[in-house]
């Protein structure tokens, strides 16, 4: 099926290398590494053919998982899906997915590859089925930042009405290996409601595109085979909105369930009823277009003018529209210019302004509370001759951010019930909601 498998860091460093068929030498990785360096900040396409060799890859958590095919006519989609499962298995057994965690658990990763593939043919890609076959103990490495860009904020306790909380690093522990370790492991379950925003706002403030790509993710450390019921909003509908409710309800344009979820119960009670698989998985995904129940997190106004001193003054007013008790963090604005720049300076000393690639300004704001407004003036000087129209063709401006405990759809977990036949079965239940600015664009 595949001849060899390797894992690369984002800078092209080989972290894991596994040859199954001895068809190629280790130099086969160099062609893929050169492609990464040529692309720079751009992503490598998932299917790449170099010197007659077919590379199939995925990008997860800053890492490239790459398979070199033994035969070129294999199903590429199947290989991509299998590589995704391998990345999830490594994350389940190592606790987190990054360069440091894989290096600390290199013997464990090789053991997982040995049990998952035989002579390059995929055998077992299920976390629970691999558990009896794995014997290396994982080395715990806490991850400060997750795959979607989470900051290390708190996860709230569902059993105590959100009065108790722990660090998000608690969810990055590996699953237990061995019968004794499984008995000693704390009975816990972690649930994330994650929403990625795809928004485009025109220069006059009109929202031309507003999409939410959401998911309910689960990481289970529960003993036995309990049944779970995750109760979502009662005013949740799929497809058309009931006329009597209007905009008061939440309407999902598309949704998809994990194979373990009882769909009939969701249609009747808006409840996700299932037996959780071992490790991490996505239980429920959904897409909402245009009909957002809560306001968008950011609004911005832009003014641009050129002055006699051969400078461009770019004025930004960024307002955070979420409730006052919420916060957006890790805010990063990217402002592209059509010509090379020599220097940029701002009047706001509480934020960071950097110039990269000579044509791109990054404005970094640590955090903004709900209702807060930032006002900044950039003084920009071009490199070389002064362009004829210095203020034209600037933008669009993209914003990256994340917000804990706030979602534009207002979808949240109302209750989590764990049913187990054993008495005194008291698991710890933790949850959080995160909004992530995936593609948030302002046209200038």
Q: Percentage of helical residues?
A: 10-25%
Largest sheet: 11 strands, mixed
Tell me the total number of β-strands.
27
Spatial separation of the terminal alpha carbons: 50 Å
What ranges have pLDDT less than 50 throughout 5 or more consecutive residues?
144-154
Summed up:
The chain is mostly beta strands.
Descriptive account of the structure:
With 444 residues, the chain is mainly beta. It contains 7 helices and 27 strands. The chain has helices at 28-39, 76-94, 99-104, 106-116, 127-130, 179-184, 263-269; strands at 2-9, 14-19, 47-50, 53-60, 63-69, 117-118, 121-122, 154-157, 165-167, 188-201, 207-221, 227-231, 236-238, 250-252, 254-257, 271-274, 279-289, 298-306, 312-320, 327-336, 341-346, 352-356, 360-369, 373-382, 397-404, 415-419, 428-442. Strands 8, 9, 10, 11, 15, 17, 20, 22, 23, 25 and 27 form an 11-stranded mixed β-sheet that branches. A hairpin with a 5-residue loop joins strand 10 (188-201) and strand 11 (207-221). Helix 2 packs across helix 4 (106-116). The protein is globular. The chain starts with a strand and ends with a strand.
């Amino acid at each position: 099926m595949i001849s060899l498998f390797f894992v690369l860091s984002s800078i092209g460093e080989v972290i894991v290398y596994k040859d199954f068929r001895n068809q190629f030498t280790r130099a086969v990785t160099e062609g893929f590494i050169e492609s990464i360096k040529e692309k720079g900040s751009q992503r490598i396409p998932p299917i790449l053919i170099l010197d007659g060799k077919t590379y199939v890859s995925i990008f997860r958590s800053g890492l490239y998982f790459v398979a070199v095919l033994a035969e070129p006519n294999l199903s590429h989609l199947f290989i991509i899906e299998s590589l995704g499962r391998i990345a999830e298995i490594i994350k389940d057994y190592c606790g987190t997915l990054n360069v440091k965690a894989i290096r600390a658990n290199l013997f464990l990763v090789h053991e997982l590859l040995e049990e998952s593939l035989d002579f390059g043919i995929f055998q077992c890609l299920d976390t629970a089925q691999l558990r009896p076959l794995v014997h290396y103990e994982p080395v715990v490495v806490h991850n400060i930042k997750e795959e979607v860009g989470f900051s290390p904020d708190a996860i709230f306790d569902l059993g105590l009405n959100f009065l108790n909380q722990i660090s998000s690093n608690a969810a990055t522990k590996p699953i237990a290996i061995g019968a004794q370790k499984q008995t000693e492991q704390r009975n816990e379950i972690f649930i994330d409601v994650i929403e990625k925003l795809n928004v485009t706002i025109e220069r006059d403030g009109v929202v031309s595109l507003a999409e939410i790509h959401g998911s309910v993710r689960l990481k289970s450390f529960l003993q036995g085979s309990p049944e779970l019921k995750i109760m979502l909003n009662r005013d949740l509908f799929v497809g058309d909105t009931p006329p009597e409710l209007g905009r008061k309800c939440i309407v999902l344009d598309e949704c998809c369930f994990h194979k373990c979820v009882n769909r009939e119960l969701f249609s009747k009670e808006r409840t996700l009823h299932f037996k959780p698989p071992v490790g991490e998985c996505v239980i429920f995904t959904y897409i909402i277009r245009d009909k957002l129940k809560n306001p968008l997190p950011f609004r911005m106004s832009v003014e641009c003018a050129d002055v006699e001193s051969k400078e461009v003054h770019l004025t930004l007013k960024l307002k955070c529209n979420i409730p006052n008790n919420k916060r957006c963090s890790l805010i990063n604005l990217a402002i592209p210019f059509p010509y090379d720049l020599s220097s940029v300076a701002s009047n706001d000393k509480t934020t960071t302004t950097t110039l990269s690639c000579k044509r791109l300004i990054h404005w970094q704001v640590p955090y903004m509370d709900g209702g807060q407004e930032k006002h900044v003036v950039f003084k920009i000087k071009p490199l070389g001759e002064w362009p004829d129209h210095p203020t034209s063709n600037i933008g669009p401006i993209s914003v990256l951010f994340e917000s804990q405990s706030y979602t534009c759809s207002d979808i949240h977990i109302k209750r989590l019930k764990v049913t187990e036949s054993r008495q005194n079965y008291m698991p710890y239940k933790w949850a959080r909601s995160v909004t992530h600015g995936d593609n948030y664009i302002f046209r200038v």
